[in-house]
Structures are given as C-alpha cells and as structure tokens.
Amino acid sequence: MDLPDLSAFDAARLLNEGQCSSVELTRACLERIERVEPRVRAFVTVLADQALDSARQADQARAQGKIASPLMGVPVAVKDNMCMRDAPTTCSSKILENFIPPYDATVVQRLTAAGMVVVGKTNLDEFAMGSSTENSGLFTTHNPWDLERAPGGSSGGSTAAVAAGEALLALGSDTGGSIRQPASLCGLVGLKPTYGRVSRYGLVAFASSLDQIGPITRTARDAALLMNVIGGHDPLDSTSWPEPAPNYCEGLDRGVRGLRIGVPKEYFIEGIDPEVEAAVRQAIEQFAALGAEAAEVSLPTMPYAIPTYYICATAEASSNLARYDGAHYGLRVEGADNIIDMFSRTRAQGFGAEVKRRIMLGTYALSAGFYDAYYMKGLKARTLFKRDFERAFEKCDVILGPTTPTPAFQLGEKVDDPIQMYLCDIFTTPANLAGNPALSIPCGFSAAGLPIGLQLIAPLFDEARLLQTAHAFEQATDYHKARANLAAD
Ligand code: GLN
Predict the structure, then answer these.
(1) What is the pTM of this model?
(2) Atom of ligand 1 nearest to the CA of 178
(3) What are the tens digits of pLDDT across the range 125-145?
(4) C-beta of residue 79 within 8 angstroms of C-beta of residue 170
(5) Which of 86, 245, 292, 318 is 20 to 30 Å apart from 447, CA to CA?
C-alpha cells in the first residue's frame, strides 16, 4: 500500500519505527493531491508550504524524543468551516471567499498541539447546508469511488480527500448528518460525538444547538486516536461538556460478546435501497456471530425527524447568518445608495440559493405569530426524540441501522429537488436532535462497487462504546480495507 493509503495508526507506526519521516508522508499526500485533485476537487485551499513546515517540526521533535501525541506528523484535512489563523476560511461561500480569521478554532489548535500536519481546508456545501457538496458556492467535489457521483455532504470535501488518499484523516462537522452521510458514501468511518464533547469554538455556526465536530477516518481506531486529540472540555465554548473525555483507545478490543444491539423497526422504511438493506441485515448477522444479541426497539418519533430538523436548523441558521451584512467581515458589495441597500445587495450576491431558502424558512418559523406553531413545536419534538432514545436504551446498548437510504447518487440527480436532498438525512438527524453520539462504518458494497455504511448510535457521552463496537466489526470484516482506485489512473 502507498503511504497516503495507510491508516493513520499504521502510518504513525512507520514514523515511530523510523521507516519514514513526516516530511516523506506529507510529500506523498501532496503528490497525491497534485495527481488526483483536478478530478476530485476536495480542497478549497491546499496548504503545501505550511504542511511541510509542520512536518519538518514533527520530524525534529521526534528526533529529540519529544512525542506530542501518537498522531504527531500525520497529515490531516480540515473542513473549511473551521477557523485557522492566516489561512482562508470560506465555508465554501462567496460571502466569506476572502475571509482570513485571526485565530485558530480549538480543534485546529489541538491538532497543532498534537503535532499533526494540516494539509488543507476542504470543500463543503455552503455553510454546511446540503448533502452532496453541490451547494458549495465555489465548486463541486467528486466521489473518488465514481467521479460522476456525489461524495455526500456537507463534509464531502473531507470524505473525498480521505477516500482519495489526499490526507490520512480529516475533520468534519455534523448538524444533521454531515459527517456520517458522506463517510457512508465514501466508504469511511465518520463519528458525530455527543453534543458538547468537542469544542465548537471557531466552528462557523450553522445551527448552534445541533452542530458538532468529529473525525472522518479509515478505521475505528483512527477515529479513537483523533478523538483523543480533539475531545474534552474547552472554556472557550460555553456548551462544552465539563467532564474530561476518556482515552478512546483503551478498551477498543473489548469485543461485542453480550452486547445488546437494538434494531429500530422504523429504520427499514419503504424506499430504502434493497442493497443497503441487505448489507445492513448481513452486518446484524455478523454481530450475532461475534456474540452480540439483537433486540427489536422502536423509535416512534422517527417519521418526524426531517420536518423537526428543518424547522430547528433553519431557525437557528437565519439567526446565525444575520451577521453577514457586509459591515463586519467578508464580502461587501459597493455602489449602494444607503446602508440597507448595501446589506441587501451584499446578501443577495454573497449567498447561494440553498442558503437563502433556509434563511427564509427559518425567519418564517421564528416570526411573530408563527413562532409557537413552528419553532416552539420543533423544540418540543426534540424532547420526544430524546425520550425515544432513552426508552430504546433501556432495552439495548447500541442502536444499529443504515446511515443513508442509498449509496452515492449521481451528481445532478437531486439538485433541483430540495426535498429529495433533505431525505438523505432521514436516518442521521435523530441523533443530532437528541444530542446522542453516532457513527457510520463501511459494511458492504453495492453491485456497482459503491460503499454502503452502517450507523451505530449510543447513549449520551458513550462514544467509546461506538468505537469498540465498530472496531469489533472491522476485526471480522474487510470492507474498511478497500480503497478507491484513483491513484492508478
Ligand atoms: N444535509 C443536512 C442539511 O442540509 C445536514 C447538514 C449538516 O449536517 N451540516 O442540513
């Protein structure tokens, strides 16, 4: 296997054994970027010089015996809605195209402190609103498994980068599925931690009560390693959970003997692709063979997930996006007659169609006279999702189901039908609404060779259980070892 295709864990072992340097590993990723990026288009900004500088520093530190973390010297990609000092943070929006933040997001600061090498900032649906990267205000990213297909979204740049070997792992953000859905479509592991587990300081807000940052990796162990870097309390984020995060690598080998796996009947709805259903059912058998017990559970509120999510998320978005007014930062359209005219020209030119749609929906849901009927109702429905999970976890230890209804779809297939695009998140939004941690892992391939993902959901703050369960599955299967075959082209 070429260096850029290794798991982060295996690459770190080569670094520790002196079999390669961080500079070599980083160069290999930068060369891969040069080779495949014209076809994949995962990156908004490639930070080649900075990456090589960090790699040199990591090599020097290692030579002096100073090991900042087990991932020191490993190349990582960061979704372009997380601030990084002295590099553009665009959110893939015209309104922030030239914005350079004066500070690092906490997660970026932690990657740096861990000695990791940030190779670039990845493309997303504008302000993380979408499921395919086709809503990016800059360009569309292609799925490395089939370049005609979407990588998923909104963290599609991050998942495409890892699937194409342009970085060994990446950070994404997940408001309604944006880590898990693209991870599923690109054959990767994607973890949305519990709300509050990872600091949101420096993450450009979409829907603040739902947004969470998390790892996108090739294996569960890599996700555990990256969680050890980014997880834990941060005084700069008032919603950050005060307790320290555990060591996620401990107990990874615990296995699943006796684990009760809850399979909600609502997760096998009409319209789910038969190949996806078959792969997920086969995974349930695989878990049974490993000693887990299947339990039927119910999430009765599930059919209301999409409407609840799209009320709550758009309401918060309309409020969060009010700050892009041409006065504070980002784009300002000149030539206006007065300040109101300047605001509206700036926002009309700066935002794309989907972002405008959400601002309008959200403003409507929050407006006097409709607030109680929509936003308040949405908040109350969230309590029902929490209760659904609490009841289900009385009968099981983890919940299992598909991550997405279908494998990767064709680019262009859903762009003109926002409802179809919203339905990509039918299985992922409940965990955001309730706050629970959830993870997607590869569990098969369609006849056309496209990856299929399996979703696991755990009780609040039990990311460790998800990682252990996923790791046990990987020990018994080979799906996570497959790589998109782009490098050879
Ligand atoms: N696809 C969903 C949306 O469009 C979720 C996005 C996300 O998780 N950031 O809102």
Answers:
(1) 0.98
(2) 8
(3) 999 999 999 999 999 999 999
(4) yes
(5) 292
Complete edge-to-edge strand list for the sheet that includes strand 293-297? 43-46, 117-122, 75-79, 169-174, 212-217, 189-192, 438-445, 451-457, 398-402, 260-264, 293-297
* Known catalytic residue at 158: no
Examine the pLDDT at 489 and tell me if it is beyond 80. Answer: no
d(CA 152, CA 144): 11
Alpha carbon 115 to its chain's center: 22
Query: How far does residue 421's CA lie from ligand 1's centre (Å)?
Result: 10
Q: Check if 54 is active-site.
A: no
Is residue 178 among the annotated active site residues? yes
The set of long-range contacts for 367-374, using a CB threshold of 8 Å and a minimum separation of 24, is 374/311, 374/315
- With 0-12 CB in 10 A as exposed, 13-18 as middle and 19+ as buried, what is 1? exposed
> pLDDT digits over 248-277, tens only?
999 999 999 999 999 998 998 878 999 999
The model's pLDDT over 281-324, given as tens digits with 9 standing for 90+, comes to: 999 999 999 999 999 999 999 999 999 999 999 999 999 999 99
